[in-house]
Design brief:
Length: 228
C-alpha cells in the first residue's frame, strides 16, 4: 500500500473528457522517508498537488485554445498536470515540472489513462537554478502566487528560462500577489493583458479569477535602451 488513497475524476476540457487519478481528499499524507519534508513540503501542503483546482482547470481550458504551434512550453508547479496533458493531446512540445515527490508518477499514470504519450517531466524547485532545462517560448502556471515570496521566485524562473521573445500565462484566483508579479515581469520587458474569469459556477461578475497573459517581443535590455 502506498500510504495514501486515490480516486478517479473526469474533467471535461474543450469537449473532451480527461480521466484523472487524484488524491481522495486534502487529508491524504504519506512521507515515510521524509523526502517531502526535506523539500519543505509540510503535512498541510502535501496533498495539494493531487487535486484539481479551479485555476488549474482554467489554465487547461486556456491551453486548449492557445496557439502553441512551434512553441516550446514549460508548465511550472504542474501538480496533476491537467494543462500539460491537454497540450500533450494537441501535440505540443511541453515540459511539465513540479517539486512534489509524487508529481511525476501521477503525471505518467494520467497520461497513460488518457492514451497519451509520456510527458517530458523535470523535478524543479523555483529557488534552485536548473540550467539544463533550457529556454521556452511559453511558460504557464496556475495558482502559484499563493505566498508573498512566490512572485519573486516565479519571476526569477521566468528570467532564467524565457526566450527573448516569449509569453507567460498564469491563472490566479485573486489571491493578491499578482500585482507584484506583474511589476517584476514588466521590468523584464513583458506587457500584460488581463482577463477576468469565473472560478466556478457560483462566481458572479466582477469575477475573482484572472487569466494573466504576458508577452515580450523584445529583450528586456533592448526595452530599457529604448526607454532610456
Amino acid at each position: 500500500m502506498p500510504g495514501y488513497t486515490t480516486r478517479n475524476q473526469i474533467v471535461p476540457i474543450g469537449g473532451h473528457d480527461y480521466r484523472l487519478r487524484v488524491l481522495s481528499d486534502k487529508q491524504q499524507f504519506s512521507d515515510p522517508d521524509g523526502h517531502g519534508e526535506r523539500l519543505g513540503i509540510s503535512s498541510a501542503q502535501w496533498s495539494l498537488f493531487g487535486q484539481i483546482w479551479p485555476a488549474g482547470r482554467l489554465l487547461a481550458q486556456a491551453m486548449h485554445r492557445f496557439d502553441v504551434a512551434d512553441k516550446r512550453v514549460l508548465e511550472l508547479g504542474c501538480g496533476i498536470g491537467l494543462a500539460s496533458l491537454v497540450l500533450q493531446g494537441r501535440g505540443a512540445n511541453v515540459v511539465a515540472s513540479d517539486m512534489h515527490p509524487l508529481a511525476e508518477s501521477f503525471l505518467a499514470y494520467n497520461a497513460a489513462l488518457n492514451a497519451l504519450p509520456a510527458l517530458h517531466y523535470r523535478h524543479m524547485r523555483w529557488d534552485v537554478p536548473l540550467p539544463t532545462l533550457g529556454h521556452f517560448d511559453l511558460i504557464i502556471a496556475s495558482d502559484v502566487l499563493y505566498e508573498i515570496d512566490h512572485a519573486l521566485l516565479l519571476s526569477s524562473v521566468v528570467e532564467r528560462h524565457a526566450l527573448p521573445t516569449a509569453e507567460v500565462v498564469v491563472t490566479d484566483p485573486g489571491r493578491g500577489h499578482s500585482t507584484r508579479f506583474t511589476r517584476l515581469l514588466t521590468a523584464q520587458g513583458f506587457a500584460l493583458i488581463e482577463e477576468r474569469c469565473p472560478m466556478d459556477d457560483e462566481d458572479l461578475p466582477p469575477f475573482r479569477g484572472r487569466l494573466l497573459h504576458y508577452s515580450r517581443t523584445k529583450p528586456a535590455s533592448l526595452v530599457e535602451d529604448l526607454s532610456g
